[in-house]
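ARCHIVE CARD
Drawer: 12
Card no.: 0347
Subject: one protein chain, sequence and derived structure
Cross-reference: see card 0346
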Amino acid sequence: MTQRTPTILATSGGFCRGERTQLLPGPLLNAAIELAGAPRRPKLCHLGTASGDQQHWKSWINDAFAGTEVAVTHLDLFPMPSVADMRTHLLAQDVVWVGGGSVAGLLAMWRLHGLDEVFHEVWQAGVVLSGVSAGSICWHTGGVTDSFGPMLQPVTNGLGLLPYGNGVHYNSEPQRRPLLQRLVAEGALPESYATDDGVGLVYRGTQFVEALSERPDAAAYRITRDPADQAAETRIEPRRLPD
């Protein structure tokens, strides 16, 4: 672990389709490694809690990094924790990558196993915390989720490492934008940041620093509550990452 400033990269992207493998690490995932100081042999731990620790995701991710210098491990919680000392294992990483799925289920399982407190320590120690979709919302106070069904609902019990709400898949799932704006306008969520598909948000400590994009014409957004209790949305142009 080489990065000392608490750092989070919260995304709506990360992996891309491979030609010979199901997945390849995309520019946003590579950016997470760069944020960790680009160690010579990066240690990356994947958590698939939000999708039930499915074996095929672990196999695809192992294949994605085959032949690279990245040392990949997986921390499963189903049917039991896959490592004896989760705190020590996570503190030894350079990057933690959290996959998508049910953010409500993820938060419940993490709290059941004490990972909410562990992740606060891991973040303070400087391990880069990152992930996609549920793996983005979890670091914030909450956001918009399909954890409860196809009609999206709010989730407001995120880990709260970041004092903002979070929106993901902002340009590809039509319910997300209006619901996030309504929740901010009503005060159910605080000031929030959202990402189109292929965009990530970089935070140093609790300060938003910049947006990164692996796709053209994609953006990030800041949503605030104005004096008339309406949502005000500001587009944030991201820095385009090399392919």
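Annotation on reverse: The mean pLDDT is 97. The first strand starts at residue 7 and ends at 11.
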